[in-house]
Amino acid sequence: MTDTAANRLSRLEANRSLLTQTLRGIEKEGLRVDEQGLLARTPHPAGLGSALTNEHVTTDYSESLLELITGTHTDVDALLAELTNTHRHVYGVLDHELIWNQSMPATLPPEADIPIAWYGKSNTGMLKHVYRRGLAVRYGKTMQCIAGVHYNFSLAEDLWSVLDTQPGTVQDRRSRGYIGLIRNFTRYSWLLMYLFGAAPALSSDFLRGREHPLRKLDESTLYLPYATSLRMSDLGYQNKAQSQLKLCYNDLDTFLGRLYGAVTQPWPDYQKIGTHRDGEWIQLNTNVLQIENEYYSSIRPKRATGRCERPITALAERGVQYVEVRCLDIDPDSPVGIDAATSRFVDAFLLFCTASDSPFFPANGYCQRSADNFSTVVKEGRKPGLTLDREGQSIGLAQWGHELLDQIAPYAALFDSALGGSAYAEALAAQRAKLDHPDSTPSARLLAALTESRLSFHDYSLDLSRKHADTLRAQALPADIASSYEQAAAQSVAEQLRLEQSDTEDFDTYVARYHSALKAPRT
């Protein structure tokens, strides 16, 4: 007998208490800039500890690109409280610097002068650094300075047996469930870009003189009039190696098999570059992907890994543990880049994606229709009368959006029923106005603010970042919380030193061992 979305929703309602065990966490990126809004070229602040081992604050691509990391929380308010505290801690350390509160970068120096993140001399740290050198030669440093909010989400282990009544272990059900979630996310994530995309403009020097389809808003600002998120568009940057990748989300084994192929298949252009220049490593290998994380996607299946363990191996052996949503722009109006309503809507959206019917994609496991819808919305999502392609039929964006909100509403209600209150229903209701009034979307509001203020993207963003800095600095951290951050920073420095002193092999050997740790998944 075929299971239905209605049956799964009914079972969820009967087991709604398990939703109180839902976990969410945030990784929020933000460039360090000086008081003029220029990229800070100072080292990662010593007061923030080791970027390699501090669990609260690290760096992403650049030495200047902070990444603030929360733990996992069963409550949105607690999640954002931690994120806010971490921002306050960072501002207590920064000296005459700001966190740039936009996804599109501040004014950048020449490519050669953008500093690549440094993690110390341990083999683990050098692997992270050389990987980033590889990103520089493959994609350029400028593109790596774009920032976003990554949202990690997992459901209670016992819930997978409620949602999936098919034969198999809990691990099988969990992995099937998360991969089904990802298929639906791929179908419907255009809605997130419309509702929360906040990057319709950028500084003209970001494009480094390349050809582009953008329009001029002022002498130093480029934009697209109906764009929601230029961050998630190609911006004229194409990478042939990645563009030919069509990973399959029909099942975990096939997905891992194709990812394995990408990290083991040589790519001619990268072979021409080689792995060394002037006796130094410049990329980890010459394959389509150096490592699994190089694959750019709006969502990833994830599993915590041990030191030197490859993500493919961990996922193959222990299954999917959670998903990482990677398409959320920084909310310029929030001092910490995301607000509670967004978090709650994403929770309800992901639960809807989990419990709804999720048919397989075509035989190759890739859905071009969904990719095209996503691309259309990031470039012209607010265009009057815009239509999308739903299963081969044209449908207005607003009509489809409202129908999706109707389908998501029961899942928001489930969270409210489990947690108490009406915050999830209110978060969903707040999105309906954006469908009826495109001018109320974050992307439209940013363009309106730029136009009304007559400020460039740079000057407007700098002013906003200063205001957020003042807000965060205005309330000091409680002494016990401040002390815990300071202790974590000190411990991270000690841990980095321990790693450096404990290495017993040279880096070349370590890299070879890291590559050999990759095991071909079953197919």
Features:
Creatine Kinase, Chain A, domain 2, 3-stranded antiparallel sheet, 18 helices, 45% helix, globular, ATP-binding, Glut_cys_ligase, metal ion binding
Report strand %: 5-15%
Query: Based on CA inertia axes, which overall geometry fits?
Result: globular
Structural class: alpha+beta
Question: What's the story with the biggest beta sheet?
Answer: 7 strands, antiparallel
The first-to-last residue Cα distance is: 28 Å
Give a concise summary.
It is built from 18 helices and 14 strands. With 523 residues, the protein is of the alpha+beta class.
Topology:
Elements: H1 5-14, E1 23-34, E2 57-59, E3 65-69, H2 76-93, E4 97-99, H3 123-139, E5 149-154, H4 159-163, H5 170-188, H6 190-196, E6 201-203, E7 215-218, E8 221-223, H7 240-243, H8 252-264, H9 268-273, E9 276-277, E10 280-281, E11 299-302, H10 311-318, E12 322-328, H11 340-355, H12 368-380, E13 387-390, E14 393-396, H13 397-419, H14 423-436, H15 442-453, H16 457-473, H17 479-502, H18 507-516
Antiparallel strand pairs: 1-3, 1-4, 1-5, 2-3, 5-12, 6-8, 7-8, 9-10, 11-12, 13-14
InterPro entries: Gln_synth/guanido_kin_cat_dom (IPR014746), Glu_cys_ligase (IPR007370), Glut_cys_ligase (IPR006334)
Catalytic activity: L-cysteine + L-glutamate + ATP = gamma-L-glutamyl-L-cysteine + ADP + phosphate + H(+)
Family: Belongs to the glutamate--cysteine ligase type 1 family. Type 1 subfamily.
